[in-house]
Amino acid sequence: MASYSYQSSSSSGGGSDSAFQQADVNRDGRVDINEFRNFL
Predict the structure, then answer these.
(1) How far, in Å, CA of 40 to CA of 35, rounded?
(2) If DSSP states are collapsed to H, E and C, what string results for 1-40?
(3) Hey, how many other C-beta atoms are within 10 angstroms of the C-beta on 7?
(4) Which of the listed ranges 5-9, 11-15, 29-33 does the model predict with the highest average pLDDT?
(5) β-sheet bridge partners, residue 32
(6) Is 12 exposed, middle or buried (0-12, 13-18, 19+ CB in 10 A)?
């Protein structure tokens, strides 16, 4: 099963950080395919 990691950049506006945190339900630092599907 694929999972996706995300590392924020200091230049980001914060919107992507918030979206990632919402999608990463189990707070493991990765969004797996099920978390991604549920987020959409």
Answers:
(1) 9
(2) CCEEECCCCCCCCCHHHHHHHHHCCCCCCEEEHHHHHHHC
(3) 6
(4) 29-33
(5) 3
(6) exposed
Two tokens at 18?
């918030």
Average of pLDDT values for 13-39?
A: 91
Task: Check: CB of residue 8 under 8 Å from CB of residue 17.
Answer: yes
pTM over 0.85? The answer is no
> What is the amino acid identity at position 37?
R
Q: Which residue has the tokens 């599907």?
A: 37
Asked whether 1 and 33 are in contact (CB, 8 A), the reply is yes
Judged against a pLDDT cut of 60, whether residue 18 lies above it is answered with yes
